[in-house]
């Protein structure tokens, strides 16, 4: 009788641990994440909260990446990110914001994706087409200022 009680308690304990581990552990399909990213319109001031609310906290928490190259070409700025899995394998493009020295904010348009790298293109307002000294970029888990050189370029060194 004692073994039955101990065995039942052990089984109950295991079931409780499994149930607790499953709380909030749902995954959003990558296709749904892509749809949400396409519709997202985050604001500069509330970017972290906006992307979590518009895309989902779990997918945003899984996003890991870094800026590796930036270049101003006339009326636009191109920024290349190196992204880690699982986002590197998804078609979804995380919304990324860029702010020019004048305060103008642009939502990046994701262009080409090559393996773990994704390029974003940011249009500049007509009054910002002169060579920019710097741009600020806001993406999940970071907000950075990139100082462009005289040729309008910046590279992260390995």
Quick structural summary:
The protein has 158 residues and is of the alpha+beta class. It has helices at residues 2-22, 30-39, 47-55, 57-62, and strands at residues 65-73, 76-83, 97-99, 105-107, 109-114, 117-123, 134-139, 142-147, 153-155.
Nearest-integer average pLDDT: 89
Helix segment count? 4
How many angstroms does the end-to-end distance come to? Answer: 66 Å
Number of domains: 1
Can you describe what's shown?
This protein is an alpha+beta fold and 158 residues long. It has one domain. The chain has helices at residues 2-22, 30-39, 47-55, 57-62, and strands at residues 65-73, 76-83, 97-99, 105-107, 109-114, 117-123, 134-139, 142-147, 153-155. It has a five-stranded antiparallel β-sheet, with no helix packed on it. Strands 4-3-7-8 form a four-stranded antiparallel β-sheet, with no helix packed on it.
What topology does this entry show?
Layout: H1 2-22, H2 30-39, H3 47-55, H4 57-62, E1 65-73, E2 76-83, E3 97-99, E4 105-107, E5 109-114, E6 117-123, E7 134-139, E8 142-147, E9 153-155
Antiparallel strand pairs: 1-2, 1-9, 2-6, 3-4, 3-7, 5-6, 7-8
From the structure above, extract its key features.
alpha+beta, 32% strand, four-stranded antiparallel β-sheet, 29% helix
């Amino acid at each position: 009788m004692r073994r039955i009680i101990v065995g039942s308690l052990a089984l109950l304990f295991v079931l409780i641990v499994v149930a607790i581990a499953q709380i909030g552990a749902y995954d959003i399909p990558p296709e749904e994440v892509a749809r949400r990213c396409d519709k997202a319109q985050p604001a500069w001031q509330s970017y972290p909260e906006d992307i979590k609310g518009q895309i989902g906290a779990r997918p945003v928490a899984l996003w890991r990446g870094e800026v590796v190259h930036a270049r101003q070409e006339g009326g636009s700025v191109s920024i290349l990110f190196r992204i880690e899995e699982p986002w590197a394998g998804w078609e979804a493009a995380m919304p990324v914001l860029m702010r020019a020295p004048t305060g103008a904010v642009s939502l990046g348009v994701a262009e080409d994706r090559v393996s773990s790298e994704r390029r974003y293109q940011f249009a500049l307002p007509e009054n910002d087409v002169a060579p920019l000294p710097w741009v600020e970029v806001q993406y999940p888990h970071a907000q950075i200022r990139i100082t462009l050189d005289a040729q309008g370029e910046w590279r992260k060194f390995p």
